[in-house]
Amino acid sequence: MEDENLTQTRVSTRTRIPQAGLREMTSATTNSRSGILPPGTIANKAASVSPTRPKTATNAPEARSGSARPAAGTTKTHNKGNSFASSTMSRSASTASRTTNGAFSATVGYGARPPPAMSRPHSSLSARKHTGPSIPRPATSLDTHPEDAAGSVLGKRKGTHIFSLSSSRIPSCPIPYGPSEPHQDGPRKAVVPPANISDLDETALCAELFNMDLQTSVTETTVSPSCVLKGPNPTPLVPAKPGSPHKVPVVTPARPSCKHPSVSLKRSPRKARAPLFLRKDSSIRDIDHTTGSEWDQDSKERTMEEFFTRMMSRMNQTGQESFGLKETVELYKTRINELESSRDGLTETNLTLRVELESLKSQLNTAENALKDAKRDQEIALDDLDRRQRVEMESIRQDSTKDSEALNAQHQEQIRELKRQFEREISDEKAARVRELGQLTSQSAMDTQKSEIELERKNREISSLQNDLQAARVDLDRECKTVQDLRHNLDTASSNSVTLESSIRALKARIEFLEGGREEQSEAFERCNQQMMDALAETEATKEKLRREETLRRKLHNQVQELKGNIRVFCRVRPSLNSEPASDLTPMQYPDHSEDAKEINVMGPEEKSSLGTVSRKNNTFTFDRVFGPSTQNAEVFDEISQLVQSALDGYNVCIFCYGQTGSGKTYTMSSLDGMIPRAVHQIWETAQSLEEKGWRYTMAGNFVEVYNENLNDLLGNPDELDKKKHDIRHDMQRGKTVITDITTVQLDSPEMVESILKHAAANRSVAATKANERSSRSHSVFILKLLGENHITGERSEGTLNLVDLAGSERLSHSGATGERLKETQNINRSLSSLGDVIAALGQGKEGGHIPYRNSKLTYLLQFSLGGNSKTLMFVMVSPLQVHLSESLTSLKFATKVHNTHIGTAKRQARVRDG
Ligand SMILES: Nc1ncnc2c1ncn2[C@@H]1O[C@H](COP(=O)(O)OP(=O)(O)OP(=O)(O)O)[C@@H](O)[C@H]1O
């Protein structure tokens, strides 16, 4: 029973290790038991497994230094105290092992655990012997490690009373826990470390010890001031003062019965020996009185003490090792749990990743499928597009081919047309050239003939000119004498003036010389003044005489013109044109061509006499001048230039062309070298030269047309031709004619007349329905009003030059016109007959007699240019063609009538300016 109690007590002092923990650390136990891996190796492995414990190297020496402490403390503890101390120490050790992390490896080895920090508690045995105060364990870093409060694996054994055993050499002997104090982790089963006891003496001692009836009791133990008792109701320890150990009550469990097989094996032979100690039931007889050793209580006690001390130290050592292993196991388990949890986490992560991978794969597949579909769709679309483009290109190509073919055909057609046109033009040109060549040939022949005639005429002219020259010489002599007289007078006046000037100078000198004599001076001054006044008067008289000479010249000129007749008639025969065959020409002769050139013989039509003989009458006409077909416009203008000069001198001059259509009226009057432009040029030049004599001229032109007895403005808007109405108004007082709404052009330069003529021709062509038709069927009148002023003499002149291109004079019966043309012809004939009537009336010379100007628009327009107040020149134009012979004869007869008319003296419209 005592053995059982002792065993129980001893067992209870050992570390209570949970049963589950034992089972879990089988491998560790096995390793430890078999010694395959030394604790240090395991620790190292653990340290290597756990990278979170890097302080192994630094803490190990500390642990080792701890192991260097004296294993046997100087204090003695009994069983109960030892149990508490073991527990406390193991907790401290475990704490140290936990808190030092890497230092754990040092704590699990033999002797690697630091010694208990508190003094070993007193046992019941030691209680009987004072062992002195326990040495307080110095405070280490283990006590303040923060993991104490972290509730780690080791922390779960708070309050567990464990003392370590040197179990590595003790055979495994599972010893169940006996009743124990309540523990927060529940009852645990302690594992006795394997014992490998080789020391038989110690074993024997152990057996003897087991046989001791040790009485457990509540003892007091001394703990380190830094130690904290942990349990369900932890009691905080108040830090004790150094040297005054804190006393903690320790409850010692009931003594367990030792059932260790080894112990029981080794104890049995000892039982045969005599009891070494006296017990209650010992008999005095059992005592060996011979030796007396049974009574040597002190030695026995010392032996036991020593043995117990060794035993306890061994047990503590073993317990520490066991505890270290447990902690290792716990750490492994923790690590395993952590690894498992991380593995679970990794597995979950792996699963999640796999799921994600699967989903990504499916997405990838879907995307690939979609890509394939899209690619296929795009290829299809591209194919469609390509096909459409091909079709469009084909259609465009076909269209362009068609267009180009059409264009080619068009161009070919145009080329053919152009070729035809060019061929036509070339053929026309060729024919024209051939015609021109023929014409030139005939023209050259005619020219030769004409030049011969001209030569003869020139000879005649020379002789007549010699006569004229003779007469002119007489006139010139007279004029020269007059001029000489004038010059003499002028010279005299000039010399007088010079003399006077010298006299003035002499008089001035004399005045200066005779300053003293006033009377003489005043007389001399009077004389000088008189001489000067005489000289000035003489000069003025000379100038006046010169002006009178100019006036006289004009008068003489006018008298010459009057002598030539106020109405003169010139006859002009146009040449035959290239298109007109020479055989169709009327035989005409100019008998006085070389002399006066006033006659023309025109062979009349064939006439049958009563006897049946055919004869042609030779008609001789005499005019003021006859111009043959070779006469040029310049020569014609020479003859009329004196009349144009009269217009500048203030006379109304009227020059008109009369004749049938195509007789050359327009050529003579309005062509670019005709009478109108030549007259304008001459007037311009003369006006310029007269500026020296104080004359300033302004020239204003009108161009009108009389068509169907209506007046049209040829310089106005062509659209208004035949529409706009123009009235003719006469100022009877001033003898001036005004046309309403007429365009008047100021002739600032002679070149302007050309544009005026072109403008008029363009307007007439716009109104014409057929070529050349308008000019043939209407009268055109170019009116040039000349206003001259002499700022010296104060003279003023207003003359008007009328250049008239009459309509064709062919008779109605011959023209065969009807309708509109008939009306035109009637109007033309009426106006021409009215012109004849006016001229005839003027020729009668009755003062105050009626002149039928109003019978036609033409005569009414020319009222102040026909008659005594004007100078009139009529060109009778004759066509050389046989077909026009009848009309030519009629025209010549009409012209002869006019030529035989004597119109009264023309009056110059000149007035002296008032004031
Ligand atoms: N002296 C000439 N020298 C050369 N050609 C002339 C001459 N006179 C007239 N002609 C030509 O004769 C043709 C007819 O002349 P023009 O048109 O002047 O006749 P017209 O009498 O004015 O006719 P219409 O009454 O129809 O106006 C024109 O081709 C013109 O060039």
Automatic annotation (TrEMBL):
Record carries keyword Cytoplasm:
yes
**Stretch list, region Disordered:** 1-152, 238-266
Output compositional bias ranges, type Polar residues. Answer: 1-16, 47-59
**CDD domains named in the record:** KISc_C_terminal
Show the ranges annotated as biased composition (Low complexity): 83-100
Listed A to Z, the keywords are: ATP-binding, Coiled coil, Cytoplasm, Cytoskeleton, Microtubule, Motor protein, Nucleotide-binding
What broad taxonomic lineage does this protein's source fall under? Answer: Eukaryota, Fungi, Dikarya, Ascomycota, Pezizomycotina
The protein in question is named Kinesin-like protein
